[in-house]
Amino acid sequence: MDDVKTSSAVPGDRTPDTPREPMVVIDGVNKHFGDLHVLRDINLTVGRGEVVVVLGPSGSGKSTLCRAINRLETIESGTISIDGKQLPEEGKPLAQLRADVGMVFQSFNLFAHKTIRDNVTLGPIKVRKKSKSEADQQATQLLERVGVEAQADKYPAQLSGGQQQRVAIARSLAMGPKVMLFDEPTSALDPEMVNEVLDVMVGLAKEGMTMIVVTHEMGFARKAADRVVFMADGQIVEVGTPQEFFTSPKSERAKDFLGKILTH
């Protein structure tokens, strides 16, 4: 069940699903932190252009899985492939493949001493070898796309948390990633800033970006996800469309989780 590549639901106004070419393939992945088995035989295939939202209680392994996909966390067994290429363990090949995987964290991780524009152009110039003028032009377009073009010459400390997170998304997009990973991207934000970031993410979903999103934002999962992956105790417990998961979860663990989340 956890490697299904299609879904019958059509979230938002996304196109109806057809069989998708695999973009991310996670096969038999295990990870320990000491005696704690944080990822237990994880198998999941994410199709090109698919949005998968990973839900579950704290400590279920969601963020570890997200970080393992571009080797920010090592794994002990199993394989992870991006667009048909298996992730190397280290070295230049890993850096090259990692450049195809955008990552947005809870904290914004912007360079405090660089302007917003410089934060967005640094990767394309250093890694993608773009000219400064080309990178600047792209940065202007991306900052406009995420709604912070007026802040281009400011420094991160001069922006709100929501604005900084939108810059972080633009910075990832500037690398032309094949897949975007989001690890609790709104959890550090004040409540009034959450929607401005989620709106950008919904826009990316509608444009067909392959996305794996770890979040507690149930509204985003309902609106933008093709599939919901529910994790608990380091395992994938169930996978389904948002409609299936939120209206008729199959496992007792998911029913208990939703009962606690949706009544608050």
Write the topology of this structure.
Elements: E1 22-33, E2 36-47, E3 51-55, H1 62-68, E4 77-82, E5 85-86, H2 91-98, E6 101-104, H3 116-126, H4 132-145, H5 161-173, E7 179-183, H6 191-206, E8 210-214, H7 218-224, E9 227-232, E10 235-240, H8 242-247, H9 252-262
Parallel strand pairs: 3-8, 3-9, 6-7, 7-8
Antiparallel strand pairs: 1-2, 1-4, 4-5, 9-10
Give structural attributes.
264 residues; alpha/beta; Rossmann fold; six-stranded mixed sheet; four-stranded antiparallel sheet; 10 strands; 35% helix; disordered N terminus; transport; EC 7.4.2.1; AAA+_ATPase
Overall description:
- Helix content is about 35%, strand content about 25%.
- It has about 260 residues and is an alpha/beta fold.
- Helix 3 packs across helix 4, helix 3 runs parallel beside helix 5 and helix 4 packs across helix 5.
- It is globular, with a radius of gyration of 18 Å.
- It starts with about 20 loop residues before the first strand and ends with a helix.
Computed structural class: alpha/beta
CA-based gyration radius = 18 Å
Strand content: 15-25%
Query: Helix-strand pattern, N to C?
Result: EEEHEEHEHHHEHEHEEHH
CATH superfamily of the domain at 22-108 and 179-262: P-loop containing nucleotide triphosphate hydrolases
Mean pLDDT: 90
CATH C-level of the domain at 22-108 and 179-262: Alpha Beta
